[in-house]
Design goal:
alpha+beta; five-stranded antiparallel beta sheet; 4 helices
């Protein structure tokens, strides 16, 4: 019911602006955005896979960026859907915008949103661990921000936009906020996301946005811009990162030729592989780590290179005897000191002695 009421309020304000009727000052604390929860339905924005929630428009820096409602509860902050914007294989900048009419001149406005990034280079398991959750590779350098154009423009690259400080939150919701003073009865809210490195998956989820008046204006001419330089900006809370953006090589090879990396806070298997110039599959095989299991423990020893195989020692090698000493039998006939009498069965007796001395299997 509340969303319906705000939709009706926005419609009345828009009609008033079009008809030339006097505009009114927005009530302090009231969310001025239409469809702030980014709920369905979504309307086409020029392509079947580029849609935007009612009341919003989609923008992207390059072709091929998709935009659609996301209904997996794991990536929904509130309501029944979140806005998912993504492109695989290449970095992009993109987001949404909404113009809000009927804002009294000189008002101090506060805009906020929730967002989370999901970036991954794992083309087999999509960085989904054994727990069934996303475990992003944050070497993508993805971040997002929210902005207010107090002059009401629709260009996401306009220098008149007052932006929040950029922030990143991977696989968890972070909230960003920004404050600005308007110099036009129409203001625009911008949602922005980007990455520095293109990955197999580059995605951002937006949800639960807001624009409200914190201090009503006088209705007279005002200067657009931030409330006070460096003030009034609410940065996204930085969640404790499970993963580090890069790994530094540790000591060189061991005496046996192996290379071992000791896990420290923030290390990921993928980042270790990149640092040492090996593949993720090689690390998994050397350390008996199952595909999809990306969680490491601080202090864990990760084998990066196996020990060298042992080499033979050059020099005399004493071999263990495999045949017992041959017993020389004394003659059984003939006088002592006389001519040696060789018994006729000596060959048979020697053969039997050798066979008895051989090790049994």
């Amino acid at each position: 019911m509340r969303k319906i009421a705000w939709f009706a309020l926005s419609l009345i304000v828009a009609l008033a602006a079009l008809s030339g009727l006097p505009q009114f000052a927005a009530a302090q604390g009231v969310n001025l955005l239409q469809n702030p929860g980014l709920e369905k339905p979504y309307n086409g924005q020029g392509a079947p896979d580029q849609t935007a929630p009612v009341g919003w428009s989609f923008w992207a820096s390059i072709p091929g960026v998709t935009s659609f409602p996301h209904i997996d509860p794991a990536q929904i902050h509130g309501g029944a859907s979140a806005w998912n914007i993504r492109k695989g294989g290449a970095p992009f900048s993109g987001g949404g915008w909404q113009q809000v009419p009927g804002v009294q001149l000189g008002s101090t406005l506060h805009a906020s949103m929730f967002a989370q990034a999901y970036t991954c280079n794992d083309q087999v398991y999509s960085c989904i661990g054994n727990d069934g959750k996303h475990h992003s590779n944050i070497t993508s350098g993805a971040y997002f921000k929210i902005g207010i154009d107090p002059s009401g423009g629709t260009n996401p690259t306009s220098p008149s936009i007052v932006w929040s400080a950029p922030a990143a939150s991977f696989d968890a919701w972070g909230q960003l906020g920004v404050d600005a003073v308007n110099c036009n009865n129409v203001v625009t809210v911008f949602l922005f996301a980007t990455q520095s490195t293109g990955m197999f998956i580059n995605a951002v989820y937006f949800d639960d946005t807001s624009l409200s008046v914190t201090t009503p204006g006088t209705g007279t001419a005002a200067t657009c811009g931030a409330t006070t330089p460096g003030a009034g900006v609410t940065n996204a809370p930085q969640p404790t990162q499970k993963y580090a953006p890069f790994v530094t090589k540790q000591a060189g090879e061991q005496p046996d030729g192996s290379i071992v990396h000791t896990v420290i806070a923030g290390d990921t298997l993928a980042a270790i592989a990149v640092a040492y110039g090996v593949t993720l599959d090689q690390l998994r095989a050397l350390n008996n780590i199952k595909p999809g299991d990306n969680l490491l423990v601080i202090g864990q020893k990760i084998i990066v290179r196996a020990p060298r195989p042992p080499t033979a020692t050059v020099g005399a090698i004493a071999l263990a005897p495999t045949v017992a000493p041959i017993v020389v039998l004394a003659p059984t006939n003939g006088p002592i000191g006389g001519a040696l009498q060789v018994p006729r069965d000596l060959g048979i007796r020697l053969l039997m002695a050798i066979m008895q001395a051989l090790p049994s299997k």
